[in-house]
Structure formats: C-alpha cells, structure tokens
Amino acid sequence: MITKKERLKIVKEETLRHSNGNEVIAAVVEIDTIRDGIFITRKTEFHYYDATDNKILATADLAEVEGATEFADANIDMLGQQIVYWLPVLILLLLIAIPVVILFVVVPRFYSTSEYMNPIYEKNDNPR
To answer: 83-98 pLDDT, tens per residue?
Structure first.
C-alpha cells in the first residue's frame, strides 16, 4: 500500500509470459520513503506483477517466467539505494545558526552594559 509518505515511479517496464500463459509485467521501480518527516531514502528495485491473476510475484515464482532472468541481467546496473541528506543537514545547520544569531546579534543589543551605565556616569560626572 502506498501512503503519503512514499513515492513510487516506474523507471522501466517489460511484458513477459508465465509458463501457464499468464501475462507478467516486469518493472524497475524507484521508491522514495520518508521517515520521521526528514529522512528520505530512494531505493530502486525489481518488481514482478501477474496481470492475469492480479497479484505480485515473489522471487520463487520467477523460475516459471520466461525472460525474467534476462530482464534482471539487463537492468542490474539500475538497482541501488541512496539516502537524501540535504534536509537533515539543513535542519542541523538551522539548529546551530539560530542560537548563534541570538547570542551574537540579539542579546548584546538588549543587555548592553555600556548603555545601561550611561545615565549613571553622566549623573555622577564620572570620566569614561
């Protein structure tokens, strides 16, 4: 079941025949999975679908499908898994940058001891 947290894209597909005459669709599928809202994993894998019986085939069922090994051998270089790092890195940079901005820009303007002491120095006629 595909939820809102996953994205599925068919990269390549081919129609094959099962030994019992059923039509089997072999596909290279790219799946994006999002975990915890920030960790994105992009995985490319093979999927086989029996269009006649309306079911997904397991690896054990592929022995009876003509051309399944040829399809897998021809597209083996497309398989892989990749983690998308830009969103977690951006969040970590913001977690570091926001306190630094507050510490070095905002706080000195609110709690400036020189401005706080100015009326006292002027009242007592103290040298600076």
So the answer is: 888 888 999 999 999 9
Q: pLDDT tens digit string along 21-70?
A: 889 999 999 999 888 878 888 999 999 999 988 999 988 888 888 889 89
Phi, psi of 58 (to 5 degrees): -85, 170
Question: Any idea how long the chain is?
Answer: 128
pTM above 0.85, yes or no: no
Which residues partner with 16 through β-bridges?
24
Q: What is the DSSP string of 46-89?
A: EEEEETTTTEEPPGGGGGGEETHHHHHHHTGGG-EEEEE-HHHH
State the alpha helices, DSSP H only, in 34-78: 68-74
